[in-house]
Amino acid sequence: MKTLLVISRHAPARPEAREALDVILAAAAFGVPCGILFMDDGVFQLLKGQDAAQIGQKSLAANLQALPLYGVEDILVCQHSLGERGLQANQCLLDARVMNNSEIATLIEHYDQIVTL
């Protein structure tokens, strides 16, 4: 079976953020080995304590917390993207593995299919 990596690059208020989570949860539900990498403004999806109701949105927290339950083993976050935004891994809702740019390049080679949203 082919493997899938979803790269989520958008802030939580953007529809692409929810779409990335929907894609990975659907793939995982069908037994596809998959991982998700949060990069660029996508790292904001992982921040603890967000109140999506303040901007009239549904929270992504439940979808994010479901990732391990669906068997998504690789939950990853870009170290450079965190640093550019003044964030640290301990501010993340999930226990995401922090990866530098060279590790990300190797990771991408490991997956058969890549979807960027």
Mean model confidence by pLDDT: 92
| Lateral arrangement of strands in the main beta sheet | 4-3-2-1-5
The stretches of 5 or more residues where confidence is low (pLDDT under 50) are none
Distance between the termini: 22 Å
Shape: globular
- The fraction of residues assigned to DSSP E strands is 15-25%
* CATH architecture assignment: 3-Layer(aba) Sandwich
Total number of distinct structural domains:
1
State the CATH topology: Hypothetical Protein Ychn, Chain: A
> What percent of the residues sit in helical stretches (DSSP H or I)?
25-40%
| Cα Rg | 13 Å
CATH class: Alpha Beta
* Annotation, overall tally of beta strands: 5
Task: Summarize the helix and strand pattern as letters.
Answer: EHEHEHEHE
Question: How many strands, what sense, and barrel or not for the largest sheet?
Answer: 5 strands, parallel
- Classified in CATH, the superfamily is DsrEFH-like
Derived from helix and strand composition plus strand pairing, the structural class reads: alpha/beta
How would you describe this protein?
The protein has helices at residues 15-29, 61-66, 79-84, 101-110; strands spanning 4-8, 34-38, 74-78, 97-99, 113-116. A 5-stranded parallel β-sheet has the order 4-3-2-1-5. It is built from 4 helices and 5 strands. The chain is an alpha/beta fold and 117 residues long. The chain has a single domain (14-49, 56-116), classed as DsrEFH-like (Hypothetical Protein Ychn, Chain: A, 3-Layer(aba) Sandwich), CATH 3.40.1260. Strand 2 (34-38), helix 2 (61-66) and strand 3 form a beta-alpha-beta unit. The mean pLDDT is 92. The radius of gyration is 13 Å and the shape is globular.
